[in-house]
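Annex B.
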Amino acid sequence: MSLGTTLLLLALAVPLILLIRRDYHAFLGLGPGGTPSTFPGYLKRQLTQTSPPDLIDALHLRVRNIAVAHPKHLSIGVSCIAKHGLALNVSSPKPLNPTCGPIGEVCHLHASDGSMHLTLHPSDAALVIARGWAERHPLGEGGLFGERYVPRSFLMVYAPRIEEECEMVVEVVRAGMYWVGGLDFRGE
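Luciferase domain-containing protein: predicted structure tokens.
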């Protein structure tokens, strides 16, 4: 390889490496929880489809409003799985399918891109994945020695890009409420 070719490759590679490094450090700045804070965890992020900021705000508001409408059964808090971010939790009755120890975390939202993690009934999870709206979280497959850190039907639901997709995501959240807590507030 000639010196000129080597210098050209370096000139192209260095800015790319610096860009990846900066983005990786931004990923680490999100803090622990969810996808492992490692380079392989970084590579599993959703990068190409994000919600516009106003749609992220609208989705957060809709999830909050569900909890506000049913304060005896639902609450908003910080995710016990991701350790940050808005979470919708079943507060009463006791969760039928606890997701984080005894806590019934239905979902937690990612303010950075509009995506969310949530747990569904296995058949609902299969349907949502088949329709291309979500993917199974890699930690649901099992970790070291096959131990699962999250339920098998714990999904990464892609960020809604338009209003109609936002409505669909809210309906998926309602399905999660039914699976985690036996709460059926459809049509409200």
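The longest strand covers residues 104-109. The longest helix spans residues 3-28. Further annotation is deferred to the next reporting cycle.
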